[in-house]
Design brief:
This protein is of the alpha/beta class. It contains nine helices and 14 strands. It has an eight-stranded mixed β-sheet, with helices on both faces. Bound molecules: ligand 9Z3.
């Protein structure tokens, strides 16, 4: 498969590359519904603050994007992410008074559901003789928390959950969110924990039907996904506070790559993490400093997202104060 229909995308600006990406992407089926939900959410958070300032709103992205190999997709390439980072962070942001747009990969970990077993329906509930359903007492507390906290956040208008599966859906919804959060100025934040594919098969060069194995080994050339961090900062939401994540498996290159992302995409903060230690520690990279954030190992069940979100909230406060001045 050839890169972007043979056009010379290396010589194009990131803006042109992203334009080509969106023009060729299959349109979202539920775009109008997402638009309505976003409008309601943003209106509510623009007008509900007591001090006349907009509420703080963060878009948390979570889970990995898929890259379909066929239009009638049987096979796809996936990026690893359980969604734990995004869902845990969402809980702490809500606790800190933020409203959250949770852009998540279908089927990955959800806020307030992290303590549920793998198969909650079968493991937490029992069907009694009179055919009513009961929660198994050993799971009652986690089930209750999952239901009450989620409903309270969603019904209160503090949590909007939007699912994606493919890279095409992810980037189109992210753009819609960014544009709709513009009116909130520096009170808006992007916390981009989703694992986003760097390579994809452009829709127009993708085969319709399932690729056949009969013709031997498969040769495939993937196009580069245009760096949406660039357009996010420069066009979609230039005033929002932006945090991206950098994931590597080789610690020797991790900080160098995080530094590069910080400068190249003008991020306010890059959270560097290594795959095997990501639940223990992360390194927050800013223009001024590098701060290692660790999970409190003396506390049972403590996670790294708790201190991380405290730091992020402080830095966002400083950013808002600086913008006001
Ligand atoms: C991360 O680095 C996240 O922290 C993890 C979280 C995906 C490792 P889990 O969901 O894991 O808790 O299991 N996310 C960003 C990964 C990524 O794709 N970053 C891009 C890159 O490294 C930049 S957008 O190039």
């Amino acid at each position: 498969m050839d890169s972007m229909n043979g056009t010379d995308h290396e010589s194009e600006t990131p803006t042109l590359k992203i334009k080509a990406f969106f023009e060729s992407a299959p349109p979202l089926k539920d775009a109008a519904e997402i638009e309505t939900k976003l409008k309601e959410f943003v209106d509510r958070n623009s007008s509900s603050s007591e001090n006349g300032k907009a509420n703080r709103v963060v878009c948390v992205t979570s889970g990995g994007t898929t890259v379909p190999l066929e239009k009638r997709c049987v096979r796809y390439i996936d990026n690893f992410s359980s969604g734990h980072r995004g869902s845990a962070s969402t809980e702490y942001f809500l606790k800190a008074g933020y409203s959250v747009i949770f852009l998540y990969r279908r089927g990955t970990c959800q806020p307030f559901c992290r303590s549920l077993p793998d198969d909650p329906l079968l493991e937490c509930f029992t069907s009694t003789d009179d055919s009513s359903i009961q929660v198994d007492p050993s799971h009652a507390e986690v089930v209750k928390r999952a239901i009450t906290e989620t409903r309270s956040a969603v019904n209160g208008g503090f949590l909007l959950k939007l699912p994606f599966t493919t890279i095409f859906e992810y980037l189109q919804i992210l753009r819609m969110i960014a544009v709709s959060l513009r009116s909130l100025g520096p009170s808006a934040m992007f916390y981009l924990a989703a694992a986003v594919s760097d390579f994809y098969v452009p829709w127009e060069s993708m085969t319709i039907h399932k690729i056949q194995s009969g013709s031997g080994p498969l040769d495939m050339r993937l196009a580069q996904v245009p760096k949406m961090l660039y357009v996010l900062r420069n066009e979609w939401a230039p005033v929002a506070f932006c945090i991206s994540f950098k994931l590597e498996t080789d610690t020797d290159i991790l900080l160098g790559k995080a530094d590069m992302a910080l400068k190249k995409y003008k991020m306010h903060m890059v959270v560097a993490n290594e795959l095997s230690t990501r639940k223990e520690e992360v390194i927050v990279v800013t223009e001024q400093e590098k701060i290692t954030v660790r999970r409190d190992t003396t506390q049972a069940g403590a996670d790294v997202e708790n201190p991380l979100i405290k730091l992020v909230v402080d830095m966002h406060s400083a950013y808002i104060n600086h913008s006001d001045a």
